[in-house]
């Protein structure tokens, strides 16, 4: 599958328990609800959308970035119903440029999951599907993730999936709201 074919229509993925699909405006309320949970937002470099309308705009921007071949934004839902509520997201993006760059720059992966679904293997199952898809359909050499050192669960999950810890990047990013400089652990999976 060429990159042009890949971005012709959104690549929905299915696992034993999950559907990973394109999000639309009808998902805004769910997205807003879980981003406002302090258990989620404490691991972000922003506060999440401040309203359902802002969540709608966020989803629209993700879909525009998909059309521009700069982002693969999946909504994670339980079961096989195509309109099940979104309980999490997984975003894959090149660190620079677009998926059309050849050779492709490393890609970064980011994800969130509603807190009530933590420790049930849901994100592990979803990430396995996304990583497998990315390896098969995007010519990549490296998938990387940046995780706050205190986010032990996320560090453990990525290591379980084969990511290697490469080191601590001190004051690597700035929180959009607090303007505080944040340390992150860099992890990478070579493909």
Write a structural description.
The protein has 191 residues and is α+β, with helices and mostly antiparallel strands. The chain has a single domain, classed as 3-Layer(aba) Sandwich (Aminopeptidase). It is built from six helices and eight strands. It has an eight-stranded mixed β-sheet, sandwiched between helices. β5, α5 and β6 form a beta-alpha-beta unit. α2 packs across α4. It is globular and about 40 Å long. The mean pLDDT is 90.
Q: What descriptors fit this protein?
A:
GNAT_dom, 8-stranded mixed beta sheet, Ribosomal-protein-alanine N-acetyltransferase, 30% helix, protein-N-terminal-alanine acetyltransferase activity, 6 helices, acyltransferase, 191 residues, single chain, globular, Aminopeptidase, alpha+beta
């Amino acid at each position: 599958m060429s990159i042009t074919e890949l971005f012709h229509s959104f690549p929905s993925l299915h696992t034993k328990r999950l559907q990973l699909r394109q999000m639309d405006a009808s998902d805004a309320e769910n997205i807003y609800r879980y981003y406002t949970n302090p258990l989620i937002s404490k691991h972000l470099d922003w506060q999440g959308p401040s309203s359902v309308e802002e969540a709608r705009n966020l989803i629209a921007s993700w879909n525009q970035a998909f059309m521009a071949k700069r982002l693969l934004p999946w909504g994670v839902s339980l079961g096989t119903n195509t309109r099940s509520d979104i309980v999490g997201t997984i975003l894959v993006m090149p660190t620079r440029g677009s998926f059309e760059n050849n050779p492709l720059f490393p890609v970064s992966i980011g994800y969130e999951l509603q807190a009530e679904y933590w420790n049930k293997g849901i994100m592990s199952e979803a990430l396995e599907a996304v990583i497998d898809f990315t390896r098969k359909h995007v010519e990549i050499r490296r998938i990387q993730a940046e995780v706050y050192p205190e986010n032990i669960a996320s560090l453990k999950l990525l290591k379980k999936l084969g990511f290697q810890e490469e080191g601590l990047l001190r004051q690597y990013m700035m929180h959009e709201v607090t303007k505080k400089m944040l340390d992150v652990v860099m992890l990478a999976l070579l493909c």
